[in-house]
Specification:
The protein has 13 helices and two strands, in the order αββαααααααααααα.
Amino acid sequence: MPSRAANLPCGPLPPAALATLADPYDPDQRFPYNAMLDASYFAGRYYLYFGPVPAALLALAAPFVDLRDMPDAALALPFALGLTVATGGTLLLLRRLLPSTPSGYVVAAYLVAGLAYPLPALLGRPAVYEAAILAGAFFLMAGLAFAGLALGASRWWPAAGIAWALAAGSRLSLAPAVALLGLTTIVWLLRRRRPLAALGVGVPLATAAMTLGWYNWARFGSLVETGHRYQLAGFDLAGRYDQFFRPRLPAPERTAVSLLATGAARPLSVAGSRDARAAVWGRSPCPPSCGSSRSPASSSRRRSSCSPRLACRRSGDCERSCRAP
């Protein structure tokens, strides 16, 4: 457990018993203590790994609006409406650049953007997750719309830079996309000898990068740590964080294709499919009592004991990681 003084925490105090656990990020260990799901637990306090921009906007509105009973939907809906407007503006600007595009294509693209997944799904459950996603999408598309306007009037370039900076501050996973858009735009402007316009885009992005770096440093002692590593997820995320970026591939003889090929004369057994998953994820397969069949009767018993909805409650890693197909 990290031992750093808590700075800029959020929410209520975590249960004191979490600090006594060997691994508070293991959901089996912390289950009895009703910890806040998806919060980042660090140095004995709760944090959120979400971008701070939506909360900062609420803080700016606090002197004028009563925030005590405001639901997350109060943020999600305005961002969704802004996203539809920004998307429509971007499509209209693209139509100006490509005047031969039929109007029906533009209308169809706008309807798809507004009615297709994920926008209706996000509005169907407008919680804190959806508010952050919609905020990031809105600012990203607004930046594209401002960039389109800036092609005709340079005064819009700073607005594009600010919108992209707010997108990264709303949804931190958008930072790579924002960096690519910003760098591409700056290089394009510099090649056309428009340094002031390039500064208009670059200064907001650089300011956002420094602000987010300070925000991370103040909380976790790292410029790039957002708290995602310390998330109280449905599995031990902190203990397996390196697997996000170094996935284990199965050996050639353990792939599904090879298992099917070797079992072509008979149906692929349940044990074989579990072995394939174990090779991929580095987990132990189920014990023989939950394994391959030897007769139709044992197959029936196996299906009843290994329900598709229940984990094979055995010993060791199998208890938490092995599920019957």
